[in-house]
Amino acid sequence: MISRRTALRNLLLTTGAVTVTPALLAQVAPPPEQEGVFKLPALGYDYDALEPHIDAETMKLHHDKHHAAYVAKLNQAITKAPGFEKKSIEEILANLDSVPEEVRKEIRNQGGGHANHSLFWQTLKKNEDGKPVGDLAKEITKAFGSYDDFWKLYSDAALKLFGSGWAWLAWRDKKLVIEAAPNQDSPLMSGGQPILGLDVWEHAYYLKYQNRRADYIKAFQNVINWEFLNERFNKLAA
Ligand code: MN
Asked: What global pTM score does this model have?
């Protein structure tokens, strides 16, 4: 059994000279448990693949600790919702009202965390000054006027989101929409489909950007895998 003090000391060592805030510490998870029906997906690329825009240390902590903790806690919660372990996390989140009330909030939070991050890793790729492609590019122009107009709305949603949450580009009622959602909420929870999520929890950027969320959001434009997003959009819009 590792003491909380030891765990904190280890964390401080691994994060080097960076000042770790109480808010960040509160988000840091226990070691992942690999048992259970829901699994932590592989990142799919190296931790440093998005450097310098998103640093390797952040990616490692974000995937191996934070996402792993959502998975472990979801696996614990799902034991209190018999039958739900057979469903996909997307299906569960789209029908939260059917989840037993006792664990509904826990599954909303941990399951949302699992689904959001599972999508998030796939949407990232070093793609400096990348722009939308294909049908998604056309739809973005149709919905928002231009890429620049889209980015202004999207980054504003991310910047102005109070506390922790996500800015979403989502497909809802056959239209592209920009939404901000608190905590680990997903457009899935209200009948939409997430396309691109921008994680503005401090754990997503604090080591490199500290309190400069605006700089992180600006840099995020360099790590969007627009090819993947276009493929996803085409499936959703079909
Ligand atoms: Mn996150």
From this structure: 0.86
